[in-house]
Amino acid sequence: MKSLDEKIAELHAARREKVEARAAELIAGEQENQTKNAEAIARLLDMAKDDLLQDVDGFYYYFPKPNGGSLSPWMLRAIADELDRKNAPYEAELEEYFRTHP
Which of 4, 16, 62, 88 is least surrounded by CB atoms within 10 angstroms? Predict the structure, then answer.
């Protein structure tokens, strides 16, 4: 017959196995979601690439086509991140210029 401590240890071990298995499921699901999100963002940016135009000030802006449908917040964030990425080199160039030409 098992002692109370042995039974408790078995219950803890079984619970730990269940928790670890559930954690592995959640991690796998999160990785799958991240992959799907990355694919969705890539498709969105591919569709919007012709709407990201460089203006006369040298920076890129988003000029959506009329009647192009609606955009959700995550879509707008992805476009904003892409604009930041495209504008970063020019922004750095301007900062360097004004830093060295006070």
Answer: 4
Distances (CA, A) of 3 to 7, 12, 15, 17, 96: 6, 14, 18, 21, 73
User: Which pair of tokens denotes residue 37?
Assistant: 């999100």
Helix, strand or coil for residue 33? helix
Q: Which domain holds residue 48?
A: 4-100
Helices 4-48 & 73-100, crossing angle to 10 degrees?
Answer: 70
> Within 13 Å and on the Cβ side, how many CA atoms surround 101?
6
Instruction: State the distance between the two ends of the chain, measured CA to CA, in whole angstroms.
Output: 85
pTM flag (> 0.85)? no
Asked if residues 86 and 55 have their Cβ atoms less than 8 Å apart, the reply is no
Beta-carbon contacts of residue 78 (< 8 Å; ≥ 6 apart): 41, 44, 45
Domain count, the chain: 1
